[in-house]
Amino acid sequence: VYKRQEVRFAADEIGMHETIFIQHCKNSTFFIPAKCKAISVTNSEKISVEFTKTVSNFEIVRSKRVKVYCKETTPMINIDNSDGVHVHLSKDYQNVEIISAKSSEINITYTQDDGEYAKDIPVT
């Protein structure tokens, strides 16, 4: 459980076959610089997660006010029973499938080919 902390994983700490679980955290920021299998955020509030790439998915469950920054790509983002989720995607956003259920206030921002962020796209 992290509260009001910045957590930086080293690239050599994370393997492609590992899943990272972030649970019961509040007011924290997580930096995940290496490719991993999946990332799961559960029962957390006011957190930010910046990651490079996942093999499987990025999932947010029963959380509030979560910011996600995907530097490269992830095949799928699942948002379940969460509010106030803002997802920033790289220019490879066309390959990302976003699934949401019982959630509100979801916005997606993607990077254009020129490197600038496009306007927010609300998910309804």
Report what the structure shows.
The chain is an all-beta fold. The chain contains no helices and 11 strands. The protein has strands at 6-8, 19-23, 26-32, 36-42, 45-61, 64-73, 76-80, 83-89, 97-101, 104-110, 121-123. Strands 1, 2, 3, 4, 5, 6, 7, 8, 9, 10 and 11 form an 11-stranded mixed β-sheet that branches. It starts with 5 loop residues before the first strand and ends with a strand. The relative contact order is 0.14.
Helix content: under 10%
From the alpha carbons, calculate the radius of gyration and give it in angstroms.
13 Å
Please report which band the strand proportion falls in: under 5%, 5-15%, 15-25%, 25-35%, 35-45% or over 45%. over 45%
- How confident is the prediction overall: mean pLDDT? 90
Low-confidence spans: none
Order of helices and strands: EEEEEEEEEEE
Features:
124 residues; 11-stranded mixed β-sheet; globular
Question: How are the elements arranged and paired?
Answer:
Layout: E1 6-8, E2 19-23, E3 26-32, E4 36-42, E5 45-61, E6 64-73, E7 76-80, E8 83-89, E9 97-101, E10 104-110, E11 121-123
Parallel strand pairs: 1-3, 2-4, 3-5, 4-5, 5-6, 5-7, 6-8, 7-9, 8-10
Antiparallel strand pairs: 10-11
Short description:
This protein is an all-beta fold.
